[in-house]
Write a structure and sequence with these properties.
single chain, about 350 residues, mainly alpha, Cytochrome Bc1 Complex, Chain D, domain 2, two-stranded antiparallel sheet, two-stranded antiparallel ribbon, 13 helices
């Protein structure tokens, strides 16, 4: 299944217009992300900043990497948790008609039906504008029909699922892609693992960073558990880059899913494996440097230039400070050398994927 899934993941045939593959935005070179602040969807070509220069549709969020996704207890997907299996029942845009009880398989269903991400916003696709479960089903059927006609993609999937090619549907494709993500990016042995379980070496600076992480810097109040994420939602006042999910440079985060004012400006705590490889940082990729991403948690003013902001942006920033003020990270002071120690500690969380991934036609 994982091998059949890798072929699907790499193929541009997974988008209605044959333009975009999953691997167009989730690239090895950038730690399974894309190296861009906001992702570039349909109409873009190339990798990294070349993708930005080629024009195309801007997706108002930073591309998330895959490390540990699909592991046991990894229940909550996307920056705003729009696929959430933490209660045991999956909550998602499918609203009770979830195609699977595996939250990763449900998450994999969403990119191919997302307007601008893999579906062009053109007259030809106007029937999809309703963005309903019904119009999503039309896209899934069209993609499955196409894949059934391409033996290079269909034969391995038929073999893996033990189904005849004509019976393959989009759910089989999504399960294969999920199997690929689960296997290829499964948590590997990091230097921190070796230190904890086998007494492997860490430098004094890395140890100092670890002590800060679990101690005075309170990082583990949110970045905890096997994925360095509590799978919950918190407010860190990162600057907002780009238009924002809610427009005019605003992204309400978790509130977009729950409509609960208490969730305004909250985002899922990002897991931290290989975080050294996935710059730029935060939900809108507003921060280029890892040290500044850490600093933003405790000293947001140090990375803002208030005079370069509009009055509306400053008002939005004050609202975000309110949400942040009740988080365990506000009121912490970190000196520059402590931030460098924390960066060194995060470097101990690196590992490699099993196999390289490349975009294909
Ligand atoms: C245009 C770029 C782009 C393409 C193409 C793309 N993605 Fe993504 N991916 C993103 C962005 C941006 C996010 C974060 C979106 C958000 O959270 O709002 C993301 C998030 C995800 C996540 C959630 C990870 C997490 O930590 O919760 C999964 C899973 C995923 N993508 C799988 C896929 C698959 C499978 C495909 C192909 C069918 C694909 N993506 C195609 C940009 C892209
Ligand atoms: C209150 C919970 C909380 C605490 C405490 C916390 N973080 Fe975070 N962290 C988050 C959230 C939420 C985000 C994403 C926010 C966003 O994008 O708007 C984040 C983002 C990050 C990022 C960027 C990740 C990425 O992929 O973009 C890094 C690196 C990071 N945190 C490291 C740390 C370190 C180091 C500490 C300790 C100094 C820390 N965090 C403390 C919740 C927290």
């Amino acid at each position: 299944m994982a091998e059949a899934g890798r072929l699907l993941f790499q193929s541009k045939s997974l988008s209605l217009d044959h333009e975009t593959a999953c691997a167009s935005c989730h690239l090895d070179r950038f730690g399974s992300s894309d190296g861009l602040p906001n992702a570039m969807g349909v109409g873009s070509t190339g990798q990294g900043t070349a993708r930005m220069r080629s024009g195309g549709a801007v997706i108002p969020r930073n591309t998330l990497p895959f490390w540990g996704r699909g592991g046991k207890g990894f229940t909550t997907f996307f920056w705003d948790g729009k696929v959430d299996g933490s209660s045991g029942t999956i909550l998602s845009q499918f609203a009770g008609r979830e195609p699977s009880q595996d939250p990763l398989v449900v998450a994999v269903h969403l990119p191919p039906v997302e307007i601008d991400e893999m579906v062009a916003d053109t007259a030809e696709h106007s029937t999809l504008e309703g963005e309903s479960v019904g119009s999503a089903a039309k896209v899934f059927d069209a993609l499955a029909e196409r894949v059934r006609s391409l033996s290079s993609l269909a034969d391995p999937l038929a073999a893996a699922t033990a189904k005849p090619v004509e019976k393959l549907d989009f759910k089989d494709m999504a399960e294969a892609i999920a199997a690929f993500i689960r296997q290829n990016f499964a948590i590997g042995t990091t230097r921190l693992h070796r230190f904890v379980f086998d007494g492997g070496p860490l430098s004094p600076q890395e140890i100092a960073g670890g002590l800060l992480f679990y101690g005075k810097a309170h990082c583990s109040a949110c970045h905890d558990g096997p994925y360095f994420s509590d799978m919950s939602f918190h407010a860190v006042p990162f600057p907002q880059a780009g238009f924002g999910k809610n427009g005019f440079g605003i992204d309400y985060g978790r509130y977009n899913v729950t409509m609960d004012p208490a969730d305004l400006y909250r985002f899922r705590t990002p897991p931290l494996y290989n975080v050294t490889k996935t710059a730029p940082y935060s939900h809108s990729g507003a921060i280029a440097d890892l040290g500044d991403a850490i600093r933003a948690h405790v000293d947001p003013l140090a990375i803002y230039d208030p005079r370069s902001m509009t009055g509306v942006q400053r008002a939005d920033f004050y609202e975000r400070l309110k949400a942040w003020s009740s988080e365990p990270i506000s009121g912490v002071y970190l000196a520059d050398d402590e931030i460098r120690d924390l960066e060194a500690f995060l470097k101990t969380l690196e590992y490699d994927s099993r196999e390289p991934v490349a975009e294909t036609d």
